[in-house]
Amino acid sequence: MQLCRFTFETAQARIGFIDGEDVYDITARFPSMTAFLRWSIGRADAGSVLRTALAGSQPIAQLGSVTLLRPSDDQEIWAAGVTYERSRVAREEESANSGIYDRVYTAARPEIFFKATPSRAVGPHDPVAIRHDATWNVPEPELALVINPAMEIVGYTIGNDMSSRDIEGENPLYLPQAKMYGRCCAVGPTIALTEHIADPNDLTIAISIQRAGTEVFQGAIHTSKIVRRFSDLVGYLGRDNLFPDGVLLLTGTGIVPPDSFTLESGDQVHISISGIGTLRNPVVRGG
Predict the structure, then answer these.
(1) How confident is the model at residue 92 (pLDDT cuts 50, 70, 90)?
(2) Are residues 55 and 80 both part of a single domain?
(3) pTM for this one?
(4) Domain of 53?
């Protein structure tokens, strides 16, 4: 059971419920993802409720026949950092062993930062960008939590937290510039509802980067390696914070390309998470 935003036959964005390969148009009930997230408050069985309501209805199309859009609309995107050992090591190295990332890794309070406004995020097959003033750019494949206004986890999707490691490594105060810019984040292709994912700590995240038709990097990690509980991350995000439209929270990356690798314009980034799907994006240079 998954949700999506999609187009089919017309350019109008619609909200869809995916059951197997069938896509049901639920736009009349939920004109936006925001409307669904508000409705989902207090409903741990939202997917089952929708499936029951659609019994006897005809799907609008098969999944392969629709064009999937970014599955969020008005939601901000936030991110957690240093949640995997590999990320701690990499960020400590790029900061010249300053010690700050070691301290965050073991601290009670997690690193949580603002990642993207809706206008800075893209969906499946849309280009993600690398900064024109950076020389060391990498994708960060992450499991993203989809959270409603009551700070309840409704589902999961795939996130790509694009990062300029040379800018971030020069000074931690440059983190906003390294992380937040036009097309700095991709999410999608669908939202797997919580009932669809038996255990979010038992998922495999994999990435493949293609350049001129050749794979130049690949890696994989298991979400069991995350050192933070999702409930804790959501709890800290919601402290003295309001998200009336809901929010997406990226949960950190455990896959870091070697220091010699940087993305180039024209690369293709494919990120897969078991039970959710594959997020595919070409790379362009910003500016």
Answers:
(1) low
(2) no
(3) 0.94
(4) 2-69
